[in-house]
Design goal:
With 338 residues, the protein is an alpha+beta fold. It is built from 17 helices and seven strands. The strands form two sheets. A five-stranded mixed beta sheet has the order 3-4-7-5-6. α4 runs parallel beside α7 and α5 packs antiparallel against α6. It starts with 6 loop residues before the first strand and ends with a helix. InterPro entries: AraC-type_N (IPR032687), Homeodomain-like_sf (IPR009057), HTH_AraC (IPR018060).
Amino acid sequence: MNATDEWARSEILNALKMALPSESFCWPTLAKRFGFDLQALAEPDGVVPFRATTAVFEHVAEVLQDDAALFDIFHEMDLGKFTLYDYLFVCAPTLRDGCLAWKRFLAMRTNCVSLTFTEDDSTGTLEWVIPPRLGNYTQNMFARIGWSVKRVETALDQSPAPVRIELIANAPSKTSRLQERYGDRIKFGQSRNCLVFSKEVLSQAPKRNDENLYSIIQKAACEEQASFAQRGSPLCRIADEISETMKTGTCSLQTVASNLGISQRSIQRLLAEEGTSFRQMTEEIRRSAAGRYLRETNLPMKEIAFLLGFSEISTFSRAVKSWYGQPPKEIRRTISGS
């Protein structure tokens, strides 16, 4: 898959650039090293490769020698830094409407990350879904959480906000101010990246809600979304659908084609043009996800096997050993240093 097909709005890197000390980072060098167009950072509709953004975020944490810094850097960004996407939440009729707006319009921010919003009898969950094939996105996710939590606080004029945070990544070695503020309401090593709200909170109206203003914001968002829709990659959609159906044990060419509403032959042709096949792509996604879950989470082996579509742990173990030359427990033991 061509990495340039997977993009994010350049605003995210520009916001990071503006927040960092200029003497510590040479952005022309970073652009060359991580493969993005520096000029795109100043363009309102500029995009950069998604993997470049995650790589830059990891690099920044290393240079700062602080693996929790991105929580606070993005939590402290002013409202409006990400234009319409900020106001789609803080000006919504209710927090529920704000969550649904973020889900609906995320495609104008990136074409390879998705949001889901689900409710049960007592809670609502806003979950970020980032395909494991995109590599290490830990610091990028910390930034997303810092930014989104601040918008919840702004909407309710309340800090800390009445929200629970779950993250797949293990806890950073350093501690951010956001972590101190939310204490045991932020959990690491979980099975998902999400914010969890009570039903009562979801029904609250943001302090900045204005019906007329919000209709204008939504109209502008629809127009902006349409302008970015053409940048979507069919290959990204195929890969994302493989990742999702893998979790349910129904990952097959027939199922993926049916869910996407395109023919099996079209999928085979698209993949052949990229020098791969459905089987090869599925194997690549499964292998990449296994490595990430084992190295960066504390999820039980049984749960990891399930998420990758394996019905038996023994089958999962054999597959991991064939990919990495070591059984799953050895990979986790090596990383943990125990």
